Amino acid sequence: MKYAGLLVMPAGFFLSVAALVLFPSPTLRVAFVLCGIGVEILGLVVAVKAHIEPRGQTNGEPH
Amino acid sequence: MTPVQLPAPNIMSDTAVALTLVLLALAPLAIAGVALINTGLGRSRSAAQALLGSLAILAVAAIAFLLIGSTLTGTPSDPGHSFHLAGKPWNWLGAGPLSLAGLSTAPIQSQLELLFEFLAVALAALIPWGTGADRLRLAAGCASAAVLAAIVFPLFAHWVWAGGWLSQLGVNFSLGSGFSDPGGAASIHVLGGIGALAIVWITGSRKGKFPKEGFSTAMPGHNAVYILFGCFIALVGWLAFNMAGAVLWLHAPLAALPVTAINTLLAASGAIAATFTVTRVRFGKPDASLCANGWLAGLVASSASAAMVTPLQSLVIGIVAGILTPLLVEVLELAVSIDDPSGAISVHAASGLWGLLAAGILAGPPGQLVSQLIGVSALLGIILPLVYLLFYLLNRVVPFRVEADGERIGMDLHELGGGAYPEFVIHRDDSYR
Question: Per the domain annotation, does B342 fall within a domain?
Answer without folding.
Answer: yes
